[in-house]
Amino acid sequence: MMDFIGESLGYLAGICTAIVFLPQTIQTIRSRNVKGLSLTSYIIYCTGMLSWILYGVYLGSIQMMLFNAISLFFAAIILYLIIQNRKSNRV
């Protein structure tokens, strides 16, 4: 029973962590407004998520790989939009 509770908590935590960037990603895609978003923060965050994925591979943890990959996907979209916006403002 304790294994089930532990696994369930792991999945709940993973789902919450994975979808936390979904509302921001949707809003950023729709508005194309990245003015208040920090490039440095998103670079560090994406690097951290990639590191968690690699650590999950090392541990063989499907939860760690899956949920961090989802988080990285959403954060990478925002990072891409921030970089695109900076490039277009320089021209």
Task: Give an overview of the whole structure.
- The chain has one domain (2-90): Monooxygenase.
- The termini are far apart.
- It has helices at residues 2-19, 22-31, 39-59, 62-90.
- The mean pLDDT is 92.
- By secondary structure, it is mostly helical.
- CATH fold title: Monooxygenase
Strand segment count: 0
Rg over CA atoms, rounded to whole Å, is 16 Å
Low-confidence region ranges: none
Oligomeric state: single chain
Distance between the termini: 60 Å
What is the topological layout?
Blueprint: H1 2-19, H2 22-31, H3 39-59, H4 62-90
Helix pairs in contact: 1-4, 2-4, 3-4
List the defining traits of the structure above.
single chain; mainly alpha; Monooxygenase; 4 helices; elongated
Give a quick precis of the structure.
With 91 residues, the chain is mostly helical. 86% of the residues lie in helices and 0% in strands.
